[in-house]
Each structure stands twice: as structure tokens, then as C-alpha cells.
Task: structure prediction
Amino acid sequence: MMGPRAAGARIIEKLRYALGYRPTVRRLGYWLDRYSRGLYDGPYQERPEVGPLNLEVKLQRQRLGGPFEPLEIVLVNRAVASLVNEHQRRILEVGSGTGLFAWLAGNDPRRSIIASEFDEPARMWASEHRARPNIVYCDQPLEAFAAKEFDLGVAIEVIEHIHAFGPFLRALSRVSDTAIITTPNKQRTPFTSIARTPEYSEHVREWTAGEFLWVLRAFYARVELLTIPAVHQQVAAMQANDNYWPRLAACTDLSSAPNLIAVCRGVID
Result:
């Protein structure tokens, strides 16, 4: 039988849970979010795949006075390159675009990097402007590589462009036990969080942090979610210092951070 002191402590604990600051804020937020989501009750509509537009989009942005690559994407590429460890020498990047990650990671001559990109103009641009002796630019599908051929597979801002993401992840996990996969967070703004279709015309779909985590956990035994905190401040720091490398932080399945970087290990057969 519970004594008076233990019973009193239990009541106080329940009151703290019911009336505490964090539970109260979360409860209010939950009901407001539930009401808001009820105003957008249409089904989520994926976009069709549009195919590779990589180089032309970048050149057009540059012609309009913008950066060749979006600065946040540059920061994401640098973040992924910073996560490659000394034991990961054989690297495959899929959807390598104009070769930014390959160029950054290839700065270590001990690494051998295969950068596969189906968009021929983008691949040719990378071969011309971001060539290194230890980088091979190609247009090979994942099925062309042997099982466990690589120490690391990399897919930066690719998965949101692919309709059949399940077969893609299965094929990527076949060629390496470890992968780094990035995507934008659907919860990054109040409007993208409730959008019924991605605002960016090239995205087939977007995921929340929790959706992304559990999709990846269907293929990998361990998934660590990271993000670039204070991303706009870090972009400004990179603009001021071209040698700037981003600071990373762990994030949870509830995160609303703009970018999601997943380090995946241990393939589930």
C-alpha cells in the first residue's frame, strides 16, 4: 500500500506533468496544429519526375546574378564532405550534379571517388571544371556496381527527386553498408509543412524529419539525423570566408531544421 508521502509525491508529479510549462506549451501547440491541419485536408500529391535539369538551372541562376550553386546547397555539400572519415576511401556519389561534393571529398588523394550523373551537360561541366586524378565522372546506374563495392554511398539532395525511392534505397544499400543521404525538411517553414505538393517544381515529394528517419530505418539498422544549425548565419560565415566548413548538430524526428543529413549504417537484408 502506498504511504501518504509517496502518494503526495505522485500527485505532485502528475500536476507538474499536467500544468508544467513544456507540457502546457506542447498541448496548446498540438491543438492549434490539429486545427490548422484540418483546414488543409486534401490528399498529398506527388509531382512526376522531371528528369535532369541540373546545369541549365544553375547557369540560368548565374546569368540572373545569383550564385552558380545555391549557397545552402554548397553548405550541405561541405557538411557531407566533412563527415567522410579516414576509413572511407572508396566512395560512390549518385546524382553528383556538377561535382561539388566529389571535388571537395577528392581533395584527399587517398580517396577514390566515382561520381555518377545522368545529366550529360552537368557531367561534362564537372569533368572540365572539377577534375581530379582520383575522381571518375560517369553515368552508371547503381545496378552497374558490385555489392559492397564501396566504403560509402552518398546521395545529396537526390531522393526527393525520385519517384521510386524504395528501389533506389535498396540499390544504394546494396553497394555500401554506409551512406550519407540528405533532403530538405518538409517542416522547414509553416507553409511547406502543410503544402499538399512540393513548392519546388523538381521535387517529387518532401519528408518531415520523422518520415525521413523511418523510411531510412527500413533499409539501415542505424540512422543518425544531423542538421546545419543557424543555417543562414553559417551561409553568411561561408560568404565571408571561402574556407569555412559548417558546424553540425544532431536533430530529432520532430526537428523543423531546414536541412536533414542522415548518416546510415548497417544494411538490413
Observations:
- The mean pLDDT is 92.
- Residues 21-38 form the longest helix (18 residues).
- The radius of gyration is 22 Å.
